[in-house]
């Protein structure tokens, strides 16, 4: 049990909102997951996100820290990485955390639920997302420093945050991300169950091409990006020609539900593929 989880169980979580180390202050407990807890904080006169390791499942947290710490990982569509802390305070059981840029408008998913926009703004959001994913997928070299190409492997609207301008996206949550260096054929892929509704059919059916793993995982990212683009388009008022925009829904929410099972998604996408094959001209 992590320090924060123990404090909540003991009814003392309020104390952590006053926890400080140097220029970092924890302000608000925003989300607690299997491998980490996410806090809003204040660091060097800026609001930040603080991701704190849960001791029960360190691997995904450590993988995300490794991705953020790679050389040349700077792009407007990625959160800025500030630093990581191995030991927060001798008197407080928070062992490891890292600090990244805060998105003032929250996740893309929550932003879409609360807002509609015109064609111009939709295109700016599209452009920001596409540029961010293209940057991840591309290897960059600067003398001895190398940023490998990276497959995100868990791209979804809840893993994207929106900056204060309401147009610039930041792709985040790299717990499942896989880096690839040119000239190498090996990679470690997380077996953590990802956002099921965004999984490409070949992953659901376990038919992904392992001989070309880098290409296959990047293609799966593009599939997820297409679903996110659909989510964004449903909130563009210019596409409704004078009628009210529809209520926000997740991909396949109409066909299934808010939290579909792995087998439900697999069956739905298999049926969709069969329908495409039937309609395909000879």
From TrEMBL:
It is found in: Membrane. InterPro entries: Kinase-like_dom_sf (IPR011009), Prot_kinase_dom (IPR000719), Ser-Thr/Tyr_kinase_cat_dom (IPR001245), TGFB_receptor (IPR000333). One of its GO terms (molecular function) is ATP binding. Gene3D superfamilies: Phosphorylase Kinase, domain 1, Transferase(Phosphotransferase) domain 1. Keywords: ATP-binding, Kinase, Membrane, Nucleotide-binding, Receptor, Serine/threonine-protein kinase, Signal, Transferase, Transmembrane, Transmembrane helix. GO terms for biological process: BMP signaling pathway. GO terms for cellular component: plasma membrane; receptor complex. It comes from the Eukaryota. It is a single-pass type I membrane protein. It is an enzyme of class 2 (transferase). Its EC number is 2.7.11.30. Pfam families: PK_Tyr_Ser-Thr (PF07714). Belongs to the protein kinase superfamily. TKL Ser/Thr protein kinase family. TGFB receptor subfamily. This is receptor protein serine/threonine kinase. It comes from Sarcoptes scabiei (Itch mite). The lineage of its organism: Eukaryota, Metazoa, Ecdysozoa, Arthropoda, Chelicerata.
């Amino acid at each position: 049990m992590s320090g924060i989880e123990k404090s909540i169980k003991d009814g003392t979580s309020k104390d952590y909102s006053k926890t400080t180390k140097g220029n970092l202050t924890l302000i608000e407990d925003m989300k607690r997951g299997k491998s980490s807890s996410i806090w809003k904080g204040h660091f060097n006169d800026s609001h930040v996100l603080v991701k704190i390791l849960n001791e029960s499942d360190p691997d995904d947290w450590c993988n995300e820290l490794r991705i953020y710490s790679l050389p040349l990982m700077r792009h407007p569509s990625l959160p800025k990485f500030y630093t990581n802390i191995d030991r927060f305070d001798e008197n407080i059981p928070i062992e490891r955390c890292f600090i990244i840029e805060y998105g003032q408008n929250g996740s893309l998913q929550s932003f879409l639920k609360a807002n509609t926009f015109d064609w111009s703004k939709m295109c700016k959001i599209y452009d920001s997302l596409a540029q961010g994913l293209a940057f991840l997928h591309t290897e960059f070299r600067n003398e001895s420093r190398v940023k490998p190409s990276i497959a995100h492997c868990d791209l979804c609207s809840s893993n994207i945050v929106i900056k204060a301008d309401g147009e610039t996206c930041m792709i985040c949550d790299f717990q499942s991300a896989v880096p690839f260096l040119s000239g190498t054929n090996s990679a470690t892929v997380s077996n953590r169950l990802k956002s099921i509704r965004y999984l490409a059919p070949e992953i659901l059916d376990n038919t992904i091409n392992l001989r070309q793993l880098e290409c296959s995982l990047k293609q799966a990212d593009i599939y997820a990006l297409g679903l996110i683009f659909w989510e964004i388009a449903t909130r563009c008022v210019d596409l409704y020609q004078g009628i009210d925009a529809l209520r926000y829904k997740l991909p396949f929410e109409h066909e299934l539900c808010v939290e579909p099972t792995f087998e439900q998604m697999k069956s739905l996408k298999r049926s969709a593929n069969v329908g495409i094959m039937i309609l395909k001209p000879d």
